[in-house]
């Protein structure tokens, strides 16, 4: 059996959020109305000014996406995702990029688990050498248009459940396993692996990492260091 390495994507490998970039491009291309930005602009400003959390901001972006996704044609979303990747594919952290390459060379099965849309994750992760990608899948109704419903949401919301499913389906082994994440939503799978790594963690994950003596790595500008 191959050892497995599990990575979150947004904020762990990608130096932003694929969903944020996708929503902004959907608004720019007038596929989403300008009102879609109003759903999250106050929370964005509060985060930038360090008056509120990034988590609140990203949840507002998720709300905007779900609010305006219904009725959008699959082709429109896919074309927009391709534009985002064309602009941002190389916008990655050096530490996790190099770790991915190292683990791939050592024969690890690379598994991505993210709450961004799988439609954009597939293209982003393919170029990084991932073997399997799990992300949000949105139901497509008549005439190829999205209904706004998330498929199997109860599974993908819990990353530990996704990991267990992948272990069974792909015949993987947790011996020597590595997990890398940046927020508390990654704790569930970090608890399962042998070597959890908290990369640029938010406050909640950092506190949990300290309580459990997990490795904490920070990349700031061109410096990578452990805490």
Automatic annotation (TrEMBL):
**Which pathway features in its UniProt record?**
Amino-acid biosynthesis; L-serine biosynthesis; L-serine from 3-phospho-D-glycerate: step 3/3
- List the catalysed reactions: O-phospho-D-serine + H2O = D-serine + phosphate; O-phospho-L-serine + H2O = L-serine + phosphate
Instruction: Tell me the InterPro entries matching this sequence.
Output: HAD-like_SerB (IPR050582), HAD-like_sf (IPR036412), HAD_hydro_SerB1 (IPR006385), HAD_sf (IPR023214)
Query: What Pfam families has UniProt attached to this entry?
Result: HAD
GO terms classed as biological process: L-serine biosynthetic process
The highest taxon in the source lineage is Bacteria
**GO MF term (any one):** magnesium ion binding
- Enzyme class of the recorded protein, top EC level: hydrolase
Q: Which cofactor does it need?
A: Mg(2+)
- Metal-binding is among the record's keywords: yes
Check the record and name the NCBIfam families matching this protein: HAD-SF-IB, HAD-SF-IB-hyp1
| Name this protein carries in UniProt | phosphoserine phosphatase
**Organism, as annotated:** Candidatus Yonathbacteria bacterium RIFCSPHIGHO2_01_FULL_51_10
């Amino acid at each position: 059996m191959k050892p497995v390495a599990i990575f979150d994507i947004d904020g762990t490998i990608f130096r932003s959020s694929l969903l944020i970039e996708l929503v902004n491009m959907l608004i720019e291309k007038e596929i989403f109305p300008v009102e879609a930005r109003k759903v999250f602009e106050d929370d964005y400003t509060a985060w930038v000014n360090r008056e509120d959390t990034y988590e609140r901001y990203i949840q507002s972006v998720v709300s905007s996406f779900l609010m305006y996704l219904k009725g959008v044609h699959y082709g429109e979303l896919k074309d927009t995702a391709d534009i985002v990747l064309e602009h941002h594919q190389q916008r990655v952290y050096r530490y996790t990029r190099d770790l991915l390459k190292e683990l791939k060379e050592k024969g690890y099965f690379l598994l991505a688990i993210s709450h961004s849309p799988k439609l954009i994750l597939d293209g982003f992760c393919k170029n990084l050498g991932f073997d399997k990608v799990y992300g949000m899948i949105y139901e497509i109704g008549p005439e190829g248009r999205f209904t706004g419903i998330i498929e199997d949401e109860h599974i993908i919301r819990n990353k530990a459940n996704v990991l267990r499913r992948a272990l069974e389906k792909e015949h993987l082994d947790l011996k020597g396993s590595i997990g890398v994440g940046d927020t508390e939503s990654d704790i569930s799978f970090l608890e399962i692996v042998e070597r959890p790594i908290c990369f640029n963690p938010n406050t909640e994950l950092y506190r949990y990492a300290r309580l459990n003596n997990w490795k904490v790595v920070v990349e700031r500008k061109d410096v990578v260091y452990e805490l």
